[in-house]
Amino acid sequence: TSEGQLPGAAAMGTGTPPSPSGTAFEETRLHVFTLDYPHVQIPFEITLWILLASLAKIGFHLYHKLPSIVPESCLLILVGLLLGGIIFGAEEKSPPVMNSDVFFLYLLPPIVLDAGYFMPTRLFFENFGTIFWYAVVGTLWNAIGIGISLYGICQISAFGLTDITLLQNLLFGSLISAVDPVAVLAVFENIHVNEQLYILVFGESLLNDAITVVLYNLFKSFCQMRTIKVIDIFAGIANFFIVGIGGVLIGILLGFVAAFTTRFTHKIRVIEPLFVFLYSYLSYITAEMFHLSGIMAITACAMTMNKYVEENVSQKSYTTIKYFMKMLSSVSETLIFIFMGVSTVGKNHEWNWAFVSFTLLFCLIWRALGVFVLTQIINVFRTIPLTFKDQFIIAYGGLRGAICFSLVFLLPPAVFPRKKLFITAVIVVIFFTVFIQGITIRPLVEFLDVKRSNKKQPAVSEEIYNRFFDHVKTGIEDVCGHWGHNFWRDKFKKFDNKYLRRLLIRENQPKSSIVSLYKKLEIKHAIEMAESGMISKVPSSVSLSDYHEGKIKPLSPTEMENMREILTKNLYQIRHRTMSYNRHSLAADASEKQAKEILIRRRHSLRESLRKTNSLSRERPVLAFCSGFC
Amino acid sequence: WGQAQMGVPRVPRGSASVTSLLSLAVTSEQIEHLHRRFKQLSQDQLTIRKENFDSIPDLEFNPIRGKIVHAFFDKRNLRQESDGLAEEINFEDFLTIMSYFRPIEMNMDEEQLDRFRKEKLKFLFHMYDSDHDGKITLQEYRNVVEELLSGNPHLEKESARSIADGAMMEAASICVGQMGPDQVYEGITFEDFLKMWQGIDIETKMHVRFLNVDTIAHCY
């Protein structure tokens, strides 16, 4: 009662004090301190979840060996299981199951966006045929194979599964055969296989979304329809094309719009990153609105945007975009795995030895068979055939994850009386692939001596080589009168230069990829040097006046000596410090004399190009660094 | 195969390049196509000279046109013992150059693959090393980068030079590693070149698909 409330005592209030419509005696005093949980419940819980996820991540890395043995995804699921167990034990009811809407609308897009934005486009398009082949035909193969074989098992009355129809089995097959990009990313991130292999598995996991969406909706509708006509099957096939191509078109369209928008943002640099995120998210939800493939839309949007936006936005915005994207995707991924763990605990299960074990068995068998057979066919068309090792890793890397998890929760229970059985089976498969395959893939990769990605890559030389070789190939193709891949790439480049770049990029200068890569590396290097505090150490009034006058005066020998000394001293330190995490840092310890010479010349040319090309002139720290330095 | 096809010149069986070509599954169909092309370029003569390459319009736009044409006449690529440039090449030489661009076969063993890779890399090396001294010096590298970027009127020579310098530095670090303060890195030898590309399968890009042969070559 209100009389019992003393000032200073916390009141577990419902927020509003009881209305003083009663007697004066019952009037409440002023609350000095109140607690109002329901007011902030939702944001509070969300924040706590995210905080928990991040703290868990810190925890894993405290013991530094752990992430290399067990992928983070497994640890996160375990944490989720623990949490789920606690909640279940405390409240005696199933913990909040991860809402499929939350997953599909909020948690999945950041991950796909991050992956799509940083996808190596060149490699992706070189392998596009293979990726497409695996994604479409492979998923179809798996879905139908698993569905039919499970149906065969269900017919055996001893297992008590005879009430599951063929269509239900096919639906189950289609949702469980989808290779999951989140899981693939989480596991492959640590094992560093060569880029080609990575792009094959990862590209497949992205592209198979289209076919998964189509098959899932198709079989779900079929399950609910009374009769199935041939026309429905044709409608299904047409649907696939619409879903896939429609998604990609929406993505590309919005990507162009985004690029065009960023052309005009030079006055409001601060919100540039926002456009990138808004347009890509818009492409995702627009595609979802039309029941097209959202994943393909957001991937296409990111890949399109990437090329043009990078040249329009400032360096700071670019960095912001990069880091924010990575942060969002990391948080999403962590949350997804924790939720998967939490949702596992509860009363949603029905265990049936036969169904579960055969599901797992068939998943593995059909995946292996599928990869093997498909590779034999596609190797005929590939210029670099895939070896058995590659095939094994591709098959083994076919991990299932949160997408099939969410899809199974979306099944309408009215049509699927055995839904709980499906949920259990899906969970078992996911856990198996994430835990067993995730943990063992690293030793297997080492055992099989799969080609790993080269850490110490000659970045600039490789870029030069690539461009050089493109021209050689085009030349040779012209000489022998043959139109190949390069012809189309060339044509696209010409079209790009003539129309697209003029439209979408603010200060359009014909750019060479070599030069832009080089400039990027230089700026990165320069910023690192600046950050390490080198600016303050080098006062040089001579060069300052040089800069303002716009002339290059030759520096006196003593000044040169001075500079060289400082350069070499600090150059070595920087390189030493940043080598470990900077993939693009140049040579470790070049010869001193050469380093001095080359670096001075570089500073010269960087300064000159800074003056002439407007796009870099807004970079104040780099300018200050250079003017104070050169 | 010299007799059955009409117009395909009789090449002596013993010649090394032909046997190597035959042993690596360049089909007679492909050779026929190349021969047709050769005849177009040479205007029905038996040999081609540098001037004949001017008749390929698309090649005009290629920034490294000079190096490509040069490569055809480079005696080192033609597997001749001598050095320098040939004046003219016949069909056999033409095929020899084309053979550098064969795709990898599935049934090759390790040794063959290795030889294959070395051959292709050697071809590339010769393109970079224009003065035939067996080393890619800084100047030659700069030359390459300048040519590559020559299609771009806005770029200055300075940028091209700095880029080449940066690339040389990378090469130096990979090939020689730690260098003493007085050491000068003279140039990239072929061994260094191989070392640079060790982990990276760049030669896998070095092929032209002869499979889908379209005679669209009526580019006159």
UniProtKB/TrEMBL annotation, chain A:
<feature type="region of interest" description="Disordered">
    <location>
        <begin position="1"/>
        <end position="22"/>
    </location>
</feature>
<dbReference type="GO" id="GO:0098719">
    <property type="term" value="P:sodium ion import across plasma membrane"/>
</dbReference>
<keyword id="KW-1133">Transmembrane helix</keyword>
<keyword id="KW-0050">Antiport</keyword>
<dbReference type="GO" id="GO:0051453">
    <property type="term" value="P:regulation of intracellular pH"/>
</dbReference>
<keyword id="KW-0915">Sodium</keyword>
<dbReference type="Pfam" id="PF16644">
    <property type="entry name" value="NEXCaM_BD"/>
</dbReference>
<feature type="transmembrane region" description="Helical">
    <location>
        <begin position="102"/>
        <end position="119"/>
    </location>
</feature>
<feature type="transmembrane region" description="Helical">
    <location>
        <begin position="197"/>
        <end position="219"/>
    </location>
</feature>
<dbReference type="GO" id="GO:0015386">
    <property type="term" value="F:potassium:proton antiporter activity"/>
</dbReference>
<keyword id="KW-0739">Sodium transport</keyword>
<feature type="transmembrane region" description="Helical">
    <location>
        <begin position="393"/>
        <end position="415"/>
    </location>
</feature>
<feature type="domain" description="Cation/H+ exchanger transmembrane">
    <location>
        <begin position="50"/>
        <end position="446"/>
    </location>
</feature>
<protein>
    <recommendedName>
        <fullName>Sodium/hydrogen exchanger</fullName>
    </recommendedName>
</protein>
<feature type="transmembrane region" description="Helical">
    <location>
        <begin position="231"/>
        <end position="261"/>
    </location>
</feature>
<dbReference type="InterPro" id="IPR004709">
    <property type="entry name" value="NaH_exchanger"/>
</dbReference>
<dbReference type="GO" id="GO:0015385">
    <property type="term" value="F:sodium:proton antiporter activity"/>
</dbReference>
<dbReference type="InterPro" id="IPR006153">
    <property type="entry name" value="Cation/H_exchanger_TM"/>
</dbReference>
<feature type="transmembrane region" description="Helical">
    <location>
        <begin position="354"/>
        <end position="381"/>
    </location>
</feature>
<dbReference type="Pfam" id="PF00999">
    <property type="entry name" value="Na_H_Exchanger"/>
</dbReference>
<feature type="domain" description="Sodium/hydrogen exchanger regulatory region">
    <location>
        <begin position="537"/>
        <end position="622"/>
    </location>
</feature>
<feature type="transmembrane region" description="Helical">
    <location>
        <begin position="131"/>
        <end position="154"/>
    </location>
</feature>
From TrEMBL, chain B:
<keyword id="KW-1003">Cell membrane</keyword>
<keyword id="KW-0539">Nucleus</keyword>
<keyword id="KW-0963">Cytoplasm</keyword>
<keyword id="KW-0649">Protein kinase inhibitor</keyword>
<comment type="similarity">
    <text>Belongs to the calcineurin regulatory subunit family. CHP subfamily.</text>
</comment>
<keyword id="KW-0479">Metal-binding</keyword>
<dbReference type="GO" id="GO:0005737">
    <property type="term" value="C:cytoplasm"/>
</dbReference>
<dbReference type="GO" id="GO:0030154">
    <property type="term" value="P:cell differentiation"/>
</dbReference>
<dbReference type="GO" id="GO:0005634">
    <property type="term" value="C:nucleus"/>
</dbReference>
<dbReference type="InterPro" id="IPR052490">
    <property type="entry name" value="CHP3"/>
</dbReference>
<feature type="domain" description="EF-hand">
    <location>
        <begin position="116"/>
        <end position="151"/>
    </location>
</feature>
<keyword id="KW-0106">Calcium</keyword>
<dbReference type="GO" id="GO:0004860">
    <property type="term" value="F:protein kinase inhibitor activity"/>
</dbReference>
<keyword id="KW-0449">Lipoprotein</keyword>
<keyword id="KW-0221">Differentiation</keyword>
<keyword id="KW-0966">Cell projection</keyword>
<dbReference type="GO" id="GO:0030027">
    <property type="term" value="C:lamellipodium"/>
</dbReference>
<protein>
    <recommendedName>
        <fullName>Calcineurin B homologous protein 3</fullName>
    </recommendedName>
</protein>
<dbReference type="GO" id="GO:0005509">
    <property type="term" value="F:calcium ion binding"/>
</dbReference>
<dbReference type="Pfam" id="PF00036">
    <property type="entry name" value="EF-hand_1"/>
</dbReference>
<dbReference type="InterPro" id="IPR018247">
    <property type="entry name" value="EF_Hand_1_Ca_BS"/>
</dbReference>
<dbReference type="GO" id="GO:0032587">
    <property type="term" value="C:ruffle membrane"/>
</dbReference>
